[in-house]
Amino acid sequence: MTTSHYIAGRWVDGQGSDCISVNDPALGQPFAELMAASAEQVDQAVAAARAALPAWKCTSASERAAYLRGFAEQLGQRREALVTLQMRNNGKPRHEAEVDLDDAIATFGYYAELAEQLPGQNRDVPLAAPGFTARTRLEPVGVVGLIVPWNFPLVTSAWKLAPALAAGCTVVLKPSEVTPLCELAYGQIADTLGLPAGVLNIVNGKAETGAALSNHNGLDKLSFTGSNNVGSQVMRSAAAQCRPVTLELGGKSAILVFDDCDVDAAVQWIVAGICWNAGQMCSATSRLLVQDGIADALLPRLQAALENLRVGSPLSEEADMGPLTSQAQWLKVAGYFATAREEGLQCLVGGKVLDRGGWFVSPTLYADVPEGSRLWNEEIFGPVLCARRFASEQQAIAEANDSRFGLVATVCTTDLARAERVADALEVGHVWINSVQAVFVETSWGGTKGSGIGRELGPWGLSGYQSVKHVTRCLG
Fold first, then answer.
1. pLDDT at 2 over 60
2. Is 5-249+451-474 CATH 3.40.605.10?
3. Vertex 363, ends 437 and 89: CA angle to 5°?
4. Per-residue pLDDT tens for 323-344?
5. Which of 31, 57, 72, 335 is at a distance of 20 to 30 A from 326, taking alpha carbons?
């Protein structure tokens, strides 16, 4: 596969110096390769988006909504191919890959509805001073660069692409070099729908391509999802250009289990929070805070549940959890296992890589992890859970908030008044109560502290791609 870039409505071969190998993580072997885009091709993509902007931002709301619904329908028509590709390139079990696709479809449908409401958002503003009138006008921010990660391809790109197009922006999308293939479906769909050339551009590549895009002076905004290290570089680029940026970064999130909670339900929520996508989630609830009164009953059941998870290739087995997506991530998680041994942590289950030919690791639980441990404080991005006990509600809140991150949290208790009280006290962007991590397009997504800047999804996701203009007129 060499025709891997969609620029100005045309498929073009990569002209960069990097060859990208696309791997099957269950085998640890490549199954496709493509050439990266050159810096000149990034220039061409930005120029194409700039040229397409004047006409696209003047399209009617109903026309943009029709395109967005077309994306949703076309994703559905490609369902089996995209689900299989997610399984093969990401290592996601089928049920996870299907949830991802449904999420992307729902996102385009939701922003189609919001797009149709845009004319009603241009409204008069009442003024206290006589002799003047004023109105507010919402306009697209312009040309935006979208850089998305490898753990949720299709999904993260939909969260950015759909609201950007709904707002009237034109875009340059840069997928991860680890999972570049799924996002190419968006270019195929644009062709099928007859989306005007230049409205959507896709450039693939490694860090050099991402840097060429994030540093480009032709962008009006950049939206990035990924690691904190790269996010800080993106933010420096935005600062140099004095342009807005949305950053969705890392997390080290807590799940708080109080002693009145149903043990079996709590185990289900805990396992889902750390083993979905093999723990490769910024929202993974990798810190378990369990109250003293329930800990002795919960930890053995949790250990058994993790031991009984079926770990294997999504394409050949009935897998509850697949491999890690890349060799680099596999080596990183293996390094944390070594750190845990050096720190003398108590491992109840797992703590090792699996000798299966691919990039598999075992679901892992460490008990009574000290607060100074690297594993308690650092984002691992794997199915590695660290547990600590607490005595009181105040202690649980304090330990959950004692983090440089602030993305999500989960609260497990039958006392709903306490659940709401704790949720309000947690310094995070999203809290679940007695639930798996159900994410709905109508709600917001994003965090506090080191977990990023801005919000995606819901009306907040749309407003991130809009600029507010006020028009004031003197009546004299």
1. no
2. yes
3. 75
4. 999 999 999 999 999 999 999 9
5. 72
